[in-house]
Write a structure and sequence with these properties.
Blueprint lengths: L1 H11 L11 H23 L16 H20 L32 H20 L3 H4 L19 H29 L1
Length: about 190
């Protein structure tokens, strides 16, 4: 059943196929898609009243929380794992709910930053991903990261660079889908 569902999702969302690249050029094209799609999603969010961007739909993260989580994902997988920064997190980073507390990683669930504040963080992190992807070669893509010894998330391990970048593409794709779904609901309730 799963292959049929995957095939139907790929049919309904042709850009989804690009989120499984196999070479540096494919990663660059995938990131182009991510940037383009998020631009439209942010424009949609800006059309809503600012307070709605802090509203949760069916217990899921709000739009602002979703953006904060994507900053966390980039800080963790790109800044920490790929670039080796032992303390990449911003105070507004939002880890996933099931993550145990790690002293070095912020977890302020009550923060309510404005959209512009979070978008400034996102712009910076998206530019970092762009630089990493633009700098990819086949050798870099096939390499492994050097473990960062300081405590944090993810654990201090070696990771295939390819896998870490696929994690980022998946995070960006899935969370934009959730955001679009929730913005549609908020747009009819506001």
């Amino acid at each position: 059943m799963a292959p049929l569902i995957e095939a139907e999702l790929d049919r309904r969302f042709p850009d989804r196929l690009m989120m499984r690249p196999s070479d540096p050029a494919g990663f660059r094209e995938a990131w182009d898609v991510v940037e383009r799609l998020w631009e439209g999603t942010v424009q949609r969010a800006r059309s809503l009243a600012p307070e709605l961007l802090h509203e949760r739909v069916d217990g899921e993260w709000s739009f602002i929380e979703t953006l904060r989580h994507l900053v966390f994902a980039t800080d963790s997988w790109v800044n920490r794992v790929i670039l080796g920064d032992p303390h990449p997190w911003d105070a507004l980073d939002l880890p996933f709910d099931q993550m145990r507390d790690v002293p070095a990683v912020p977890r302020d669930r009550d923060a309510r930053p404005s959209l512009d504040v979070v978008l400034a963080l996102r712009k910076d992190r998206m530019a970092t991903v762009r630089r990493v992807i633009d700098d990819l070669t086949d050798d870099k893509l096939d390499s492994h990261t050097t473990p960062v010894r300081e405590p944090g998330w993810p654990p201090s391990e070696r990771f295939p660079v390819r896998d870490t970048l696929l994690i980022i593409l998946n995070e960006e794709w899935q969370h934009r889908q959730y955001a679009e779904r929730d913005l549609a609901i908020l747009g009819t309730s506001g």
